[in-house]
Specification:
Number of strands: 2
Largest sheet: 2 strands, antiparallel
Length: about 250
């Protein structure tokens, strides 16, 4: 199945002294994916308490879950439980250490780019994500639990502020706002004009404002009044927003 992959007979994570394949050619075997997966399954069976063996098997299984048979599914489940238990106790330390390792970051990013440029991987990922989401939202208890969780979080000022700070740092507001403007250019490019009209008429309610301009301007009204979530709940003045001014100036005449 597919091209051959390099497999370390003595795992690098357990025997780092044999990691260099050029110096230890005897420790490297070229295997098809299915054989490679089987090798990690056998390693996990031989070392059921090895976190390194569990991680390797777990990652291999996740690459192509649709080919797992009963034996592999059982091993995958065991590896998953083992890792879950470990990360509950040490997750933050492990992630922090990895995210500060330049070599790990480089290898992770290269692997991610390679996967996401593979059309077959993208199709499988999209299909699997869709299946998981449908399964989750098909269960009423999941939907209720999620709704309750979000209701509690949204009442927490510190949570709202932390989300807003992160979104501001990532440019979330600007990216999403400009995308919204581009979808309704004819309305948003006149936002400054509509804002002055709204002020001149005493800041009317949404329905009266829409009658005034003859358009559905729910989004504009939400920005003017500061009631739209991604506006940060602060009133918006178009001509004082450099992002909007630059966007308008970039539009063709």
């Amino acid at each position: 199945m597919g091209e051959e992959e390099g497999h370390h007979i003595l795992p690098r994570s357990i025997f780092p002294e044999y990691e260099n394949a050029k110096e230890n050619e005897w420790n490297l075997a070229n295997l098809k994916f299915r054989d490679h997966l089987t090798a990690h399954w056998l390693l996990h069976k031989a070392l059921p308490n090895s976190r390194e063996a569990s991680i390797a098997l777990f990652m291999m299984c996740n690459r192509m879950p649709e080919i797992l048979d009963e034996g592999l599914l059982e091993a995958y489940s065991h590896a998953r439980k083992s890792l879950s238990s470990f990360f509950k106790e040490n997750g933050r330390k492990v992630i922090s250490r990895l995210n500060s390792d330049p070599d790990f970051i480089s290898r992770r990013d290269a692997r991610t780019r390679a996967m996401h440029t593979d059309p077959e991987f993208s199709r499988r990922l999209s299909r699997k994500t869709s299946e998981v989401m449908k399964d989750f939202y098909s269960k009423e208890e999941n939907v209720l639990a999620l709704s309750e969780r979000m209701r509690v979080l949204n009442k927490d000022p510190s949570f709202r502020e932390s989300v807003r700070q992160k979104q501001s740092k990532d440019g979330f507001f600007n990216k999403n706002t400009v995308a919204q403007w581009n979808r309704k250019k004819e309305v948003w490019k006149r936002a400054g004009e509509y804002y002055e009209l709204w002020l001149k008429n005493g800041k009317p309610k949404q329905r009266n404002f829409e009658k005034l301009v003859g358009l559905d301007v729910q989004c504009l009204y939400g920005r003017f009044t500061g009631t739209m979530d991604h506006a940060g709940k602060e009133p918006w003045v178009p001509c004082e927003d450099p992002v909007w001014v630059d966007w308008v100036n970039s539009l063709p005449d």
